[in-house]
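Structure ticket #2291
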Amino acid sequence: MTETTLPARLSSSLGITYQVGEISVLRASVTRGFTIPLYPGRPGGLNSSSQPKSNPEKIMSYQCGGETAVLKYFWLKATLFRHEVEDTLSPNYEPPPSPYYIIVNGKKTRRQGRRN
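Resolution: structure written out below.
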């Protein structure tokens, strides 16, 4: 591993919580991560392989939310999130009738939403 690839293969996160009264909490976090491409000989499906030149996906994730136990015996939790992914890993299918595909890097994508 060279110095230029080392930071892309480290994951880190930073989070903070703030207690609002005795029964509620607000929270936020920022996380950096990665997904390593599958290479021949590594598990990943019967018909998949990847090019040795594929780069890991780089992911920045942002989350914020809250939790409360305002109702007795019932815990409410809500989260908003946003994931920004660079070098998205995508299947590149060979022409039919071949069932095989190669995992290649794609473009930058954004995923966002909420969890209740």
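Closing remark: The first strand starts at residue 12 and ends at 20.
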